Every structure is written in C-alpha cells, then in structure tokens.
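Retry 2 of 3 after timeout on previous attempt. Resubmitting structure tokens to design endpoint.
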C-alpha cells in the first residue's frame, strides 16, 4: 500500500466514524421514541379494557333493572287478565305495586292504565292521560305481548326523567284492555354510576337506541333527555357494531375522550363509558418527558464520546479503550430493561438471567443461572408451561405467551406473563428458548376483583341478583335432567323501611350484613346458594331437597334471625328484627310447561302469605291458602 493510499484511508475514517455516531444517536432516539409511543398505546389500550369492563358491567345492570321491572309487570298483567279491572282487583294490585315500589329502590313508579289512557292506580293525581304517550300508542296499535322499552320521558307524577317498560293486557274478549307501566328514574341510574371511580374527569352515559340520553354521571340534570343521534356513534357504519372502543371529542363538554361503547343485545340501550384522554395520559407524559431527557443526555454523551473517538482514531490504543467504553454504555442500555430476560437451554436449565430478576423474583442472576428454569412455577400451572416448552424444543412452536404463578423469594407467590421464543444456531437447529417475563400480579388482582363485582353483592358478600338468576337456570336444568327436586326460600326483613327511618341507613346496612351471615351459616351444602335478591329481600336456592327439609332450613333461618335480638322498636309485634319467609319446592321434570319463574312466583306468593298472616313466620307454597284464611280470621 502506497503512502497516498494509506493517507486517503485514514482521512475517510473520521467521516465513517462520525456517520456511525450520527446513525447510532438517531437509532437510539428513534427506538426510544417508538417505545414511548408504544407505552402511550399501552396506556390507551389498558384504559379501553377498563372502560370495556365498566361498560359491560353497567349494561348488565341496566338489563337487570329492566328485568326487575318486567318481573313485576308480568305478574300484574296475568292478574288483570284473570280477574279483570274491577275496583277490588285494582285496589289489591295498587297496594301490591306501592309495596313493591317502596321495597325496591330502582323502581320509580308502577301504574295500571286503562284502554283510554287513564291511570287506574293513581286516579286524580295525574293531570292528564297517557293516551298520547308513545308507549301507550305502541301497545294500543300492536297486538304483541312482549315488554316494550320506551324512550326517556318526564314523569307526570314528579317531573323526573324516567325510562319506561310496559306490557299490554287484554280484556277477556281479547281486545286491548290497557297497559301496565313500570319506570326507573334517570337519577337512580346516575347515582349508581357514581360508585365506579374510573377517573377524576370520567363520564358514564346510558342512551336509548335512538340517541336520547337516559342517564349520565356527572351532570345528569344537564344532559338527560338530550339527543346525540347526529353524532358518529349513531351515524357512522363502522360504529354500529355491538361494542367497541371509541375515541372522540365530546360535543357535551369539549374534552378529548377514550371510551368504550356496549349495545344491549336485549333492549334498545347503549352504554358509553369514557375517560378524559389528557387526564389519562398525564402520568405517561410526565414519565416520557423524564425518560426522553435521560435519553437525550445519553445521546449527547455518546456524541461527545464519538467526537473524542474521531479525534483519536489514529491512536490505536486510545481508540480501543474508547470503543470498550462505548460498548459498556450500550451493554448498560441492554441490561437496563425492566423485564426479566432469561435464556433456557435444551436441558431446561437457565443459561442467562438479566439483572432485573432481583426485582421480578427476588433472586440475583448468579443464584439462578444453572438451576431448572421451571422450578418456581406453581404445580397447578406447571403442566401447561411444560407442554409449551416441550413443543418449542421440538420445533412445533416458534413463540408463545402464557401467564402463570411463580414463587418469589420474599413475596410468596406472584403472577408472571412470559413471552417465549425459540433460538437457533447458524445451521438452523434449535439450541434453546429466550423468555421475557414481567410481573402482572396487580393486573390479575384487578381482574379477580372485577369478576367478583360481577357476581357478588358488595354490601352482604352473598351472591347478587345476576348470579342468582344464572344459578337458578342452571339448577333447574340439572334437576330436570336428574329428575330431582329443587327448593327456593324467599326471605324478607319485616318493617325494614321503618328500621332504616328509626336507626339510619348505616345501621340498616349493618342489619342486612348480620342477616346475610345468618342465612349463609344455614346454607352450607355444596350446591346451596344464598343471594341478596334486592333491597332487604334474600333468596336461598336449595337443590335436591324435599318440602319438609326446605321448611326446616327456612325455620332455622327465621328462628336465628329472631334470636339474634337486633332491637327494632317499630316492629311492635316482636320488638326485634324478624323476617317473613316463603318457601316452594318442585320437580321440574313433572312441570314441563312451567319455567324457572314459576318457582320464584310460588315462593313469592308464600312470602306474601307469611306477611299477610302476621310476619315473623314461614309459609310453604302449599300452605298459602290456609295462611290467608287465618289472616282473615276464618
């Protein structure tokens, strides 16, 4: 090589080195920016998932509320069609509807309307008829018998916004006889939504299928009744699916929002749960700025080091030292990942463990290298993980993601999410697996909590109404298959409204929790289910039990509630908290035309007979007639 050629080669080295430094800095900035953007997307995706859970839960609550209204309406329609609309029948039903309204908070009003639109249960209290209302005209013109959910309207009783559920009833000749109407108020729904703390500037809105707002939290009074039918959620074709994420700028308050909508499959309802996008991204934005400042400082350091390297290229020894220093900095970046990176050999032992193992599992890398990779996995999860690792070693899977329980050195047991990928030699043969693991314990706790909220009553710890309805259908089907019996107890705390008025709602809540513990203590069989049916009413489902045994359980519960000695001065008959219980048993295989509602109705009738007979007693469904005769003095 000539001197000229050598000098030309040396002259190009600084330019190449400078280009390398610029490319490195640009790559670091690009990768950091991409990671921050991915972190931002992760925050938005997590918010969408949370909003989806809230939307599904609140949609189910709205459906359950309408089902509760409909259960009362169906019974009234049946009674009207059997007994007519005579004064005696209307008087009895009026008292029943008023009692049901007082007992169940989510019921705003219950009314029976004749074929002219006049209220039969509240004559003289309403200034006009219902004959021009949409729900009345619907039933007047349509012979359909199913429940009709109407648009939100202002109640004629108190001017409050309500959503209506109504059913038509016919006269004995089959002609239109009138409408049974039940409503739940916008205020009740809005107040219920206040329980879901999903963000300081979050919002939950329930809308009718045509775009009218039924209830909203916050600012329900401002927005209820307003139409948003001209918004993309009701107009754009790609948003007409049953559910999905929805990012938009709210026309109601002008805020950028991340939301999830869920359309009811049974009723014309749409639930929209939203959170303020700026509020949601504020923590990420602050952390991203901090991290990017660190990256910029690091890039500047690399640039300075690169400048020094360019100036010292002709000094071989110093260049080697500088390159080693640079390699150390890059290794620091690679080792600084918050996730634990491990490499598993074909013998299933750990070949490499990143320093973050101390934070993830509590062990240092030098304590883990050489140990079995699957040693800390929970025995219940181990077969699934082992099967995936075996499949990857055989080349049947290239990558996999799985979640499992793993032991922690100090914290007992944690949940890990691992992404695994096969590694290969230059010749293509598999030589191991690389796993990137992160701690998802808090996420699993949140999932478990949301699952419990969906099936458990938050006040008493018993099953909620939704869980009860599901189990009732399951046990009915099982009893039908097995040709076995099924029993139900309906329990209602006597004069509970008076108890609340006398001692206050906190004491009322404590009373319900005490009664719930008593009921739970008497339902210890594997198949028994104790549930809070609504308000101060409880239900106990008893599979594979006869009437006598059912009555025994009910009597023990009644006696235990009485013997608990909870002072109740306004319960003049006993001076303490008591309960009335109605029980019913059946064999589903012998009642082919009946459904699960028949068992509930039988127990409910027995409960009302127990209350009519003086309360603090148990009446089985077969004893209803005799109990009513005793109550009337015959």
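Retry 2 succeeded. Sequence:
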């Amino acid at each position: 090589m000539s001197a000229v050629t050598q000098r030309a080669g040396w002259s190009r080295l600084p330019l190449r080195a400078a280009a390398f430094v610029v490319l490195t800095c640009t790559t670091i900035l690009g990768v950091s920016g991409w990671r921050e953007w991915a972190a931002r997307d992760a925050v938005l995706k997590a918010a969408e998932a949370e909003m989806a859970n809230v939307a599904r839960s609140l949609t189910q609550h709205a459906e359950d509320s309408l089902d509760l209204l409909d259960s009362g309406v169906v019974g009234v329609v049946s009674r009207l069609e059997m007994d007519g609309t005579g004064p005696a029948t209307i008087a009895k039903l009026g008292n029943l509807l008023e009692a049901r309204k007082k007992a169940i908070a989510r019921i705003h009003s219950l009314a029976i309307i004749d074929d002219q639109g006049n209220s039969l249960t509240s004559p003289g209290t309403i200034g006009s008829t219902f004959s021009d209302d949409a729900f009345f005209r619907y039933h007047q013109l349509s012979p359909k018998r199913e429940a009709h959910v109407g648009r939100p309207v202002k109640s004629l009783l108190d001017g409050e916004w309500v959503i209506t559920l109504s059913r038509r009833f016919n006269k004995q000749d089959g002609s239109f006889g009138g409408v049974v109407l039940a409503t739940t108020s916008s205020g009740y729904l809005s107040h219920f939504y206040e329980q879901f703390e999903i963000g300081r500037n979050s919002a939950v809105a329930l809308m009718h299928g045509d775009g009218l707002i039924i209830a909203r939290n916050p600012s329900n009074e401002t927005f209820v009744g307003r139409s948003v039918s001209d918004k993309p959620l009701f107009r754009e074709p790609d948003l007409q699916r049953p559910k999905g994420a929805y990012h938009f700028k709210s026309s109601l308050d002008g805020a950028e929002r991340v939301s999830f909508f869920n359309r009811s499959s049974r009723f014309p309802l749409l639930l929209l749960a939203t959170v303020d996008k700026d509020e949601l991204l504020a923590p990420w934005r602050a952390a991203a700025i901090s991290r990017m400042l660190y990256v910029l400082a690091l890039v500047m350091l690399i640039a300075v080091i690169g400048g020094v390297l360019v100036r010292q290229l002709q000094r071989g020894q110093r260049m080697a030292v500088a390159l080693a220093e640079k390699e150390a900095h890059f290794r620091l970046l690679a080792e600084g990942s918050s996730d634990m990176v491990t490499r598993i050999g074909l013998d299933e032992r750990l070949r490499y463990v990143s320093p973050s193992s101390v934070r993830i599992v509590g062990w240092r890398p030098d304590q883990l290298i050489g140990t079995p990779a699957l040693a800390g996995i929970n025995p219940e999860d181990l077969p699934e993980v082992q099967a995936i690792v075996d499949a990857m070693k055989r080349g049947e899977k290239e990558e996999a993601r799985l979640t499992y329980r793993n032991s922690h050195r100090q914290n007992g047991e944690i949940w890990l999410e691992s992404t695994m990928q096969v590694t290969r030699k230059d010749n293509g043969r598999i030589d191991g697996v690389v796993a990137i693991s992160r701690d998802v314990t808090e996420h699993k706790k949140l999932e478990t909590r949301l699952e419990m909220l969906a099936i458990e009553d938050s006040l008493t710890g018993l099953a909620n109404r939704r869980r009860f309805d599901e189990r009732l259908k399951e046990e009915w089907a099982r009893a039908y298959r097995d040709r076995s019996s099924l029993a139900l107890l309906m329990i209602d705390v006597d004069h509970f409204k008076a108890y609340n008025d006398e001692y206050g709602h906190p004491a009322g809540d404590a009373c319900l929790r005490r009664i719930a513990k008593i009921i739970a203590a008497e339902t210890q069989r594997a198949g028994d289910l104790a549930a809070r049916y609504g308000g101060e009413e409880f239900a106990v489902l008893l599979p594979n039990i006869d009437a006598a045994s059912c009555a025994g359980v009910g009597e023990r519960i009644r006696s235990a509630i009485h013997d608990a000695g909870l002072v109740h001065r306004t319960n003049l008959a006993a001076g303490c908290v008591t309960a009335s219980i109605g029980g019913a048993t059946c064999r589903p295989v012998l009642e082919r035309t009946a459904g699960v509602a028949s068992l509930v109705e039988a127990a409910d009738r027995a409960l009302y007979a127990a209350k009519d007979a003086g309360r603090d007693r148990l009446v089985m469904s077969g004893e209803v007639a005799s109990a009513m005769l005793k109550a009337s003095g015959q």
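Attempt log closed. The two ends are 128 Å apart (CA to CA).
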